[in-house]
Design goal:
The chain contains seven helices and two strands. By secondary structure, it is mainly alpha-helical. Helix 5 packs antiparallel against helix 6 and helix 6 packs antiparallel against helix 7.
Length: about 140
């Protein structure tokens, strides 16, 4: 079912893909652990990644936020979540997610350097937080 939904999405049938992928994401369970991680976990993360990206493509950033937030321990998902927050005008949440991603990716492989640069540029363009003086 997950691959069916993915196929619909990639063939341009985005709104038809959403319920198929959501149903697959809810149903996924079971399987043997691999290195202490249940096999369903990786599939579930992949489905949430797909759903988050699909929700962005169809203009549903609030729904995308839900999926990326559920996997935000992954620095690449944190980057997507930061962009969602930035686009929603939630600049402090965006700042927090960008900073987490940058900290997590500080020793990343060279192929991730463009994403790191994008995150640094995004942090620089965010409005500066307002600091209130104590009275």
């Amino acid at each position: 079912n997950a691959l069916e939904g993915y196929g619909l999405w990639k063939r341009g049938q985005k709104t038809a893909a959403i319920p198929v992928l959501e149903a697959a994401q809810r149903r996924i369970s079971g399987g043997e652990p691999h290195r202490g991680v249940p096999s369903w976990y990786s599939s579930n993360v992949r489905l949430r990644w797909w759903l988050g990206n699909l929700m962005l493509e169809v203009g549903r950033p609030d729904d995308a936020e839900r999926y990326f937030k559920s996997i935000a321990a992954d620095p690449l998902a944190a980057l997507r979540l930061a962009r969602v927050h930035e686009n929603l005008g939630e600049f402090e949440k965006a700042r927090s997610s960008y900073e987490f991603a940058l900290l997590s990716l500080q020793d990343a492989d060279p192929e991730l350097q463009p994403r790191i640069m994008e995150a640094r540029q995004a942090l620089a363009r965010l409005p500066k937080p307002i600091r209130r003086e104590r009275s």
